[in-house]
Design a protein that fits this description.
single chain; about 575 residues; alpha/beta; eight-stranded parallel beta barrel; five-stranded mixed β-sheet; 26 strands; about 25% strand
Length: about 575
């Protein structure tokens, strides 16, 4: 994953089969025959990948593009960091490394100091008991992507890189695993067939180099990605064709998963982990299981998370986020797939050694063992200007049993404070009125729903009134809509011209991207419209914005851009 990713495609690449005949070559396995296992493949590989679950990514450090591992804002890696990550229950660690800026022209020699530093971190991780996955990371888009126009040059550089890495780590313990390349991609190719041919060439060359280097590389586990590490069926079929050619029992397939794109970045109205988002996830797991796992080929999802995390972990609403990770862990476990959480520094604090969102990690950790109950929402809104009424939530039991509701550690009374009928939880008005107290705006209390197993579910009791906006003026570089949120929380924003056509970026949808086109500033009492939003707004045309809030309230607001000046008025 690119730590400074500015664009991520959701729409799948055009489907198509592998349009080349992959002939056998000198890339045949040099590993000794360990006997048949599941599906005719070596059982040890399946067992090893099972032992790697769960995994964690040391992202935006050694893979950073810049002078050193601190170039993207993370502190220098320490042995203490790895020990603390291991203590969280992770059994494997993926160490992404970008090598290009540390490789000499001409003979393509790797900088020995950089190689030594990578080896030091690898050794620390192995000493801590981790399985370690070492790769070539952002080189994929920096220079490997130019392979269609410079096939020989890219191959020479790529081969030299793996020859040096294979030699340096040839005697490392078997718990060190090599990954050929991260998120392979090609620019200027003729299409799917050429892309598949080029990736097959890289993967088989990597395999031949490592296997021919001797030592423990004779049968070391090797990880091969699909194009873009996509789980689209056409991409999986292309990768399966490479596996068939190599016929090596010690190979692992890898894909990445960042969810259904509108939900993952909060665009096009994708505010909820709804049926469409769930189907996208379940379809991915079904495809990798049917294509690889069912045939005895282990699978590692080398990165997973939500793309909105690149900007801010609040891009996706907390409860919807938790439901995503709870179901993801369940499907990984039941489909026999090992997962590696992408962490570029926003999850586990790398000097304080605590989770920035302990609730999120609690649900991730719990999903390694079993399921947790959730609910239709973790927010219950009561309008201050109206009488307090009963509020209902739907419980998602997920195979658990609801055991009760509490507040500040005290159990609430079933039948008096709340009622449960089937999967419907009703919070009584008398309970809400009592806990809301003086009914100040915002979260006045938190309830905890308990289940027979797994993590509890937090429910915020929120008092609100419809948000109030005010007129404003500013520039396209700095424009903010004065917003008295009055306890409410912003979910998404629509933008349309007077004729009803969509305005702003992503003009195929009226709903703009959270944290890219707009962002709430609750402490500052404003809603920011970004330069990226105005860059794609027509000059002189009125744009009507509709702000959607989690309470269900909507408020409209008009903006007009004239040059770099912006005027905003309450609609």
């Amino acid at each position: 994953m690119n730590g400074f990713r500015t664009f991520r495609r959701w729409v799948s690449l055009a489907a198509g089969g592998l349009a080349l005949v992959m002939a056998s070559s000198g890339a045949a396995s040099a590993a000794p025959d360990a006997g048949p296992g599941r599906g005719g493949h070596k059982a040890d590989a399946m067992d090893a990948v099972e032992a790697m679950q769960p995994g964690w990514n040391l992202g935006n450090s050694l893979d950073a593009v810049g002078a050193d591992e601190t170039a993207w804002g993370n502190p220098r890696i320490t042995e203490e960091l790895l020990e603390n990550v291991r203590a969280q229950g992770f059994n494997s660690i993926r160490i992404p490394v970008t090598w290009g800026q540390h490789q000499a022209p001409g003979d393509h020699a790797l900088d020995p100091d950089h190689l030594d530093r990578v080896a030091e971190v690898v050794d620390w991780a192995l000493d801590d008991g981790f399985w370690v996955m070492l790769n070539i990371h952002h080189d994929s888009w920096q220079w490997i992507s130019s392979m269609p126009a410079d096939r020989e040059g890219v191959r020479a550089r790529y081969d030299a890189m793996w020859e040096q890495l294979a030699e340096r780590f040839r005697d490392a313990p078997d718990r060190l695993v090599f990954e050929s390349v991260n998120e392979p991609q090609f620019s200027g190719s003729s299409g799917d067939a050429e892309n598949a041919e080029l990736l097959h060439e890289l993967n088989t060359s990597f395999h031949e180099i490592v296997r021919g280097s001797g030592g423990r590389n004779d049968d070391r586990l090797l990880v091969l990605p699909s194009l873009h590490t996509s789980a689209d069926q056409a991409r999986l079929d292309e990768l399966m064709a490479t596996f068939d050619v190599l016929d090596d029992p010690n190979l692992i397939a890898t894909v990445h998963y960042y969810g259904y794109w509108p939900f993952s970045v909060n665009v096009a109205g994708g505010t909820r982990f709804d049926e469409v988002a769930r189907d996208d996830m379940t379809g991915m797991f079904q495809r990798v299981r049917d294509t690889f796992v069912a045939r005895g080929i282990p699978v590692v999802i080398g990165e997973y998370g939500l793309l909105g995390f690149d900007r801010h972990t609040g891009t996706v609403q907390q409860g919807e986020k938790l439901k995503f990770f709870e179901l993801f862990g369940h499907y990984a476990r039941t489909h026999g797939v090992t997962t590696m959480l992408w962490d570029n520094g926003q999850h586990f604090h790398r000097t304080g050694f605590t989770w920035n969102d302990a609730e999120l990690f609690g649900h991730i950790e719990s999903s390694w063992r079993g399921r947790s109950g959730t609910a239709s929402s973790d927010q219950v809104f009561s309008e201050r200007s109206a009488p307090v009424t009963d509020q209902r939530l739907t419980l998602n039991l997920n195979g658990t049993r609801f055991t009760g509701l509490s507040h500040d550690g005290d159990r609430l009374r079933r039948g008096t404070d709340y009622v449960v009928q089937g999967n419907e939880l009703t919070l009584r008005a008398r309970l809400l009125a009592r806990l809301d107290g003086d009914r100040e705006y915002g979260t006045n209390a938190q309830l905890t729903a308990h289940f027979s197993k797994g993590e509890p579910w937090r429910i915020d009791l929120i008092t609100y009134d419809r948000p109030v906006l005010a007129d404003a003026s500013g520039t396209t570089d700095a424009f903010a809509v004065p917003t008295d949120f009055r306890g409410d929380r912003l979910a998404t924003m629509e933008a349309v011209y007077e004729d009803g056509t969509n305005a702003g970026p992503h003009n195929w949808t009226p709903f703009k991207e959270f944290d890219v086109a707009f962002a709430p500033d609750y402490a500052g009492g404003s809603t920011t419209l970004t330069p990226a939003f105005f860059a794609e707004v027509a000059d002189g045309r009125r744009v009507t914005l509709t702000f959607h809030y989690w309470s269900g309230a909507t408020v409209t607001y008009d903006v007009v851009k004239s040059g770099n000046q912006v005027t905003g008025t309450v609609a």
